[in-house]
């Protein structure tokens, strides 16, 4: 069990560092006024309209870095620190979330695949840790519970990696749009790129951490069979 603790501590530390970097970058770029003067809400509404999307609402939600696109009710949810803000950080985040709305409207393959995984993933995440724990305790008796646990964990790991192209593509769409439509200057575009890069890193670390944990559980299972 020491191996899983080491992996957990390693990636927890890395995740905390990336999260700190993201928050510090967001704070820094939130304090620099956008020369175009647009708010996050205005940028989101313009990007949606420019892509012919008229059935998605832009709304404000409480919290910091709580921004997200909800495909179920077709809403771009912008945190209170983005919704009315006029900064490079707000422009990047607002456009990124609209990038997901564009993916939805265009039936982007990775987003469709990711959405299709959600029902199975919600069930897997509910029982997975208990099954893995039982599997480890019963490993010397039978490999069946751990095998099931590893299969469920593999599903969550696949989900983490499928999320990566979805996030990278949304950022790519966002940066291309705010640049071509003169929402940001070249200097502000560099800030927006940097902010989105660190946001993407949180997903990369999560995916790698999930893979490392999966490999550890799989090694326990293979060791039992050997």
UniProtKB/TrEMBL annotation:
InterPro entries: Zn_peptidase_2. The keyword Transmembrane helix applies. Keywords: Membrane, Transmembrane, Transmembrane helix. It comes from the Bacteria. Coiled coil: none annotated. The keyword Metal-binding does not apply. The chain crosses the membrane at residues 6-22, 116-138, 144-164, 198-218. This is Zinc metallopeptidase. It comes from Pontibacter indicus.
